[in-house]
Design brief:
Radius of gyration: 13 Å
Shape: globular
Helix content: 25-40%
Structural class: alpha+beta
Number of strands: 5
C-alpha cells in the first residue's frame, strides 16, 4: 500500500466505525465510545447493567472488503451487516 492510500483507508475505517457507533447508540442496552489507541480508531462497547466488561471493535480491510473485527483481529462481519455485528455484540456482552 502506498503512503497516499493510507489516508483513504483510515478515512474509510473511521467512516465505517461511525456508522456502527450510531447503530450501537440506538440500542438502549448498549453504550459505546470512539477511542484511539496507538493511532488506530476503535469502538469500545459495554452493556448497561452488565458486568462492566468492554469489547473493542475495529474495522479492517479483509478479504478484499471492509469488515468489523474483534480486538484480536478476528472478523465479526462485513461492514454492510451492521445489524449482524450488533447481534454479536449483544451476545458477547450478555
Amino acid at each position: 500500500m502506498s503512503a497516499g492510500n493510507q489516508g483513504v483507508l483510515t478515512n474509510e475505517r473511521v467512516a465505517n466505525l461511525h456508522v456502527l457507533r450510531g447503530a450501537v447508540e440506538a440500542r438502549r442496552e448498549l453504550a459505546c465510545e470512539l477511542i484511539e489507541r496507538r493511532g488506530v480508531t476503535w469502538i469500545s462497547v459495554a452493556r448497561f447493567g452488565g458486568s462492566g466488561r468492554l469489547v473493542l471493535v475495529g474495522c479492517d480491510f479483509v478479504r478484499e472488503a471492509w469488515w468489523f473485527t474483534w480486538q484480536d483481529g478476528r472478523p465479526i462481519a462485513p461492514v454492510r451487516d451492521v445489524e449482524g455485528v450488533i447481534a454479536m455484540l449483544v451476545r458477547e456482552l450478555a
